[in-house]
Amino acid sequence: MYPARIHDEFPAPSYRGNQKAALSDVQAAFEGGNDVVLVRAPTGSGKSLLARAIAGCARTAGEAAPEQVVDAYYTTPQVSQLDDVAEDALLEDLCVIRGKNNYDCILPGETDTPVNQAPCVREREFDCQVKHRCPYFSDRAIASNRRIAAMTLAYFMQTAGSDVFGKRDVVVVDEAHGLGEWAEMYATIDLSPETIPMWNDLDVPNVGGLDDALSLAERVESLAERRVKELRGNAELGPEEVAERDSLNKLRSDLSWFQEDYRDPDSATTWVVDQADGEGAPVTIKPMNPERYLKHTVWERGEKFALLSATILNKDAFCANVGLDSDNVALVEVGHTFPVENRPLYDVTQGKMTYEHRDDTLPDVARSIVRIMARHPDEKGLVHCHSYAIQERLEELLDDFGVGVRVRTHDKEGRDGALAAWKRSKNPDVFLSVKMEEALDLEGDLCRWQVLCKAPYPNTRDSRVARRLEDDQWGWYYRTALRTVIQGCGRVVRAPDDYGATYLADSSLLDLFERARHDMPDWFREQVDRTSDPDLPPFAPDRALAGVSAGAKRRHDRSRSRSGGGSQSDHPLSDVWD
Q1: Which long-range contacts (CB under 8 A, 24 or more apart) does 215-218 make?
Q2: 35-47 mean pLDDT
Q3: Pick from 150, 172, 169, 163: nearest CA to 63
Q4: ATP-dependent helicase C-terminal domain: from which residue to which, for each copy (predicted)?
Q5: How far apart are CA 271 and CA 77, in angstroms?
Q6: Cα(423)–Cα(120) distance, rounded to whole angstroms?
Q7: Nearest to 272 by CA among 288, 256, 257
């Protein structure tokens, strides 16, 4: 790596904010002998541009000795972040590669078939005459030979050990704050009817602990291997059989990894097992602190690493969670350039939103949202609902209060489409979202206000969370929630001249701020310290609808009258009405 050229590799024509100083600090950190540099950069710092400059410091083939690795990887957990990179003209030399399911086969009669189900994976010894033009293999070949290959973290981890994407000089991980949690998610093993076609042949016992889980894993692996051999014996497979084969192969690999790691007395991984409903029910085997998994999939893939995020809150805790030696890791702090008065926090807390108090608190939260809507009659708003149960109840309450015409929601399957439709809408619609605290850019009039409905604490019913709390890791618990809050607060203010208000509806958020104060970045602590009570108008649903067009109100009224009169799904015009 050549850190001295980091400024020459910056892709924009000029710096903005603290970018120049940040790159100088990163340069100094690498030149100081650190193999890993954490870059804590708030929203609007231009992290992707910083990432490109760092990646550009990687050795090239003309600069390296024969035994030295060259070039760089750029990776991020967020698909939307990779999409932004692919569309940014300043980052055009980041060569993006995606998984096979994102590409369509080009063979006649197969143009609607994703490459992961194409004849080359369905038919034994299939000889594709146009493989050199296949969009997936073409992109893969190009990315493998470019200076900077860009991919999602999932694809990056899956290609560990690949001859195509081997070790490189520099690895840059954007949005790296959840690296440990992402690794835990990828390494989690679900044993259920959805993942095991021969589930009924298993006779799953009551799994009382990890030794029982190990025994079950051995049996599942044996059955999966036998089924894969059967599938391989077929000259041609259908799309469903291809999916089954690939799923079983991944399952076999995961189970083998679990067995090997669990039997290794030197492994740092702690495994936990869940079986909520006892005998015959699905089983989930989960790793905690998967240092070994990350070592293989990430840390052995490069020589120098830059990890960027707004919310790497505690350097030592982060390093311990992902298996890094904190003494060999530097932290570069990038100051915030957005005026604090443009990103105010408002206290509209109505009580606790914990499960036992939610039914009492939610109606008051809904009434507050109506008042907030009246304060912003012409501006779009976002409500972070935290869960679909809260979202559903809020939608009902807001409709009962008479402001449903201004409300939009989404389900698990239609998230992207619903989000895109809301962003396109010209009306001041309010979007009730679930799990959209990250990787969402709502600059300018796309959204001017948002509500945090609930302190986003990890679910204590998750065995990993419960185990950590049993081990008294309360600092991790509060940092995890604070990280999500900070990410959420960054959705509506995206530039120095942008502005947007964040309303806090759960009193547990104020408690979180006190408990996790010492882990707050300075710029967010300043924001918290300025939290105030807003001057909200009285509860008046008609004022909340002042900015909604008459046409939208009529469409909503017709929709309500139809839905109230029974199902119309069999009507010839139901598709038009819908």
Answers
A1: 216/191, 216/283, 217/189, 217/191, 217/255, 217/258, 217/259, 217/285, 218/259
A2: 91
A3: 169
A4: 388-511
A5: 23
A6: 40
A7: 288
Is-contact 113 100, C-beta < 8 A? no
**Nearest partner of 210 among 136, 119, 288, judged by Cα:** 288
514 contact partners, CB below 8 Å, separation of at least 6:
none
Strand order in the sheet with 381-384: 345-347, 501-504, 449-452, 381-384, 430-433, 407-408
Mind listing the pLDDT tens digit for each residue in 248-300? 888 998 899 899 989 988 888 889 998 888 888 899 999 988 888 899 899 99
pLDDT digits (tens, 9 = 90+) for 315-352: 999 999 899 999 999 999 998 989 999 999 999 999 99
Per-residue burial over 196-219, b if 16 or more Cβ lie within 10 Å, else e, is bbebeebebeebeebeebbebbee
Predicted TM-score (pTM) of this structure: 0.86
DSSP β-bridge partners for residue 450: 382, 502
Which residue bears the tokens 């044993």? Answer: 191
Does pLDDT of 552 surpass 70? no
In SS3 terms, 308-326 reads as EECCCCCHHHHHHHHCCCH
CA–chain centroid gap for 549, Å, is 35
Confidence label for 565 from pLDDT (cuts 50, 70 and 90): very low
Torsion 130-134-140-144 (CA) sign = positive
d(CA 91, CA 42): 20
| Amino acid in the structure at residue 182 | W
pLDDT tens string 84-118 = 899 999 999 999 999 998 999 998 888 888 998 88
**223: pLDDT strictly greater than 80:** yes
